Amino acid sequence: MSNIIDGKSVAEQVLAECSEEIAALKNVGITPGLAVVLVGEDPASKVYVGSKVRKCAELGLHSRKIELPVDATQAEVLAVVEELNHDPQIHGILVQSPPPPQIDEEAIVRAIDPAKDVDGFHPTNVAKLALEDGSGFVPCTPAGCMRLLKEAGVETSGAEAVVIGRSMIVGKPMALLLMSKEGNATVTVAHSRTKDLAAVCRRADIIVAAIGRPEFVTADMVKEGAAVIDVGINRVDDATAKRGYRLVGDVAYAEVAPKCSAITPVPGGVGPMTIAMLIANTIKAARQSG
Ligand code: NDP
Predict the structure, then answer these.
(1) Is residue 228 within 8 Å of residue 222, measured between CB atoms?
(2) Whether residue 119 lies in the annotated active site
(3) Is 242 known to be catalytic?
(4) pLDDT at residue 2, as a whole number
(5) Distance 229 CA to ligand 1 centre (A)
């Protein structure tokens, strides 16, 4: 019987810690503030932005939602970022991804003051993660995965870890965290050019799947007793579901779970952690601004 890692309850724990820190900061006259910039009308992005702003309100954080039309220019988005960089009430800025095609997302990320880059995507923060400089911001999803491993009692030190996926948002920072002096794992990063991925995965004590392909990791790829963190969020058609689809991860949960010492479900695993770590990063930014 595998240990199902309850991301919702760990996220609640993180947010409870955040509440205490918010109260302490308010006592010294600082209300942490998060600005979320949404360009366009992407329905999923709207949902994400809405839940981030709602979470801020619930916790007593200051928040600003800035919505720009789908035909906004690069200069207009940059002007908003510039204004937020100088707004003393705003400690964290994020521009919701993906923006419309006319927007150069990388240039926008580079324009954000690294001290307010709570997504952790600015090159300064990427470098700080690689350098293990704790003043930087770690991308929220991999930071959440590390916290889940810790709370589930999964020993990363000395473990063979395989991260599937090498994106800047998940795979690469995840590998850096696992191999850091805190994680101390022996890390392999797999991607679409990896040869015999199943054999690579079977070596792993810990698998982190961040691929974006529904139920890609199957039982034959997983060693008995491994811990599996499933980052994937994929919509698959399901006529029996109310919305006509259901969410599945990158791991074939039903067949993989019985082999695992610990596993995250989808939904209810990594997903709830991402927003909790965003709030934690915003509080850190506020603390460091003083
Ligand atoms: P990307 O598309 O940026 O990266 C996917 C990675 O998977 C790439 O490195 C790619 O390799 C690799 N890959 C694709 N196909 C294969 C294959 N057949 N074999 C081995 N590797 C493969 O995705 P993200 O990292 O942004 O996201 C990954 C998943 O995580 C998605 O489902 C996304 O929705 C989810 N996600 C969830 C979040 C959460 O809050 N829970 C937050 C962010 C993402 P290559 O580089 O060679 O192309």
Answers:
(1) yes
(2) yes
(3) no
(4) 63
(5) 13
